[in-house]
């Protein structure tokens, strides 16, 4: 987000605090979208409408209750929670109607790792004064996350060109 500040006028900087919340909410929506295949494959598309209505109701309720209290941040949290609930509901209903053995342990590991590294970034924003030091810390943490994903999930040794440079 520090880099984005260089690209936009200063009057928009105050609104950047919604970006991480909305991005995680949209990540949940992307996962929901992938999990939603079950009701299409089982010809139960009515569940798509039900889940959309639930997401709408959560969004509306959070906005009505919290915009007067916390302002536009309520909209970001509404996106976060509506998409989270739709994702969890789709997973639960999908496992009942079209079970798929997802590797939840690995997904949870990466989610927790991302949350811990994000907390590290937030701490650096709070306690490190230099923007260049903060950017360096953030870059190192993101590179560490990418390295962990590649190490655990991508078998680089099996790739034809670069595979010979990596061991199992």
Q: What features would you describe in this structure?
A:
The protein is mostly helical and 168 residues long. The protein has two domains: 1-102, no CATH class; 103-168, no CATH class. The protein has helices at 2-7, 19-35, 37-41, 46-70, 73-97, 104-127, 131-153. The longest helix is centred in the middle third of the chain and has 25 residues, at 46-70. It is flat and about 50 Å long. It starts with a helix and ends in a 15-residue tail after the last helix. The model has no long low-confidence stretch (mean pLDDT 91).
The best one-word shape is flat
Task: Look at the structure and give the mean pLDDT.
Answer: 91
- β-strand number: 0
End-to-end distance: 36 Å
Q: What sequence of helices (H) and strands (E) makes up the elements?
A: HHHHHHH
- Tell me the number of helical segments per DSSP (H or I, 4 or more residues long): 7
The major β-sheet equals: none
How many domains make up the 3D coordinates?
A: 2
The helicity comes to over 70%
Low-confidence stretches: none
| Radius of gyration over C-alpha positions, nearest whole angstrom | 20 Å
């Amino acid at each position: 987000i520090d880099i984005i500040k260089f690209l936009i006028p200063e009057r928009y900087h105050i609104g950047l605090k919604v970006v991480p919340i909305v991005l995680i909410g949209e990540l949940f929506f992307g996962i929901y979208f992938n999990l939603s295949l079950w009701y299409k494959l089982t010809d139960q598309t009515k569940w798509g409408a039900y889940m959309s209505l639930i997401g709408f109701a959560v969004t509306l309720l959070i906005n009505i209750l919290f915009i007067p209290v916390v302002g536009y941040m309520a909209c970001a949290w509404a996106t976060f929670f509506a998409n989270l609930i739709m994702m969890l509901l789709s997973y639960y209903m999908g496992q009942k109607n079209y079970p798929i053995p997802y590797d939840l342990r690995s997904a949870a590991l990466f989610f927790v790792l991302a949350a811990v590294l994000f907390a590290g970034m937030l701490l650096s924003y709070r306690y490190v004064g230099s923007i260049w030091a903060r950017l360096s810390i953030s870059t190192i943490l993101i590179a560490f996350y990418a390295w962990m994903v590649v190490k655990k999930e991508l078998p680089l040794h099996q790739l034809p060109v670069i595979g010979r440079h990596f061991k199992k």
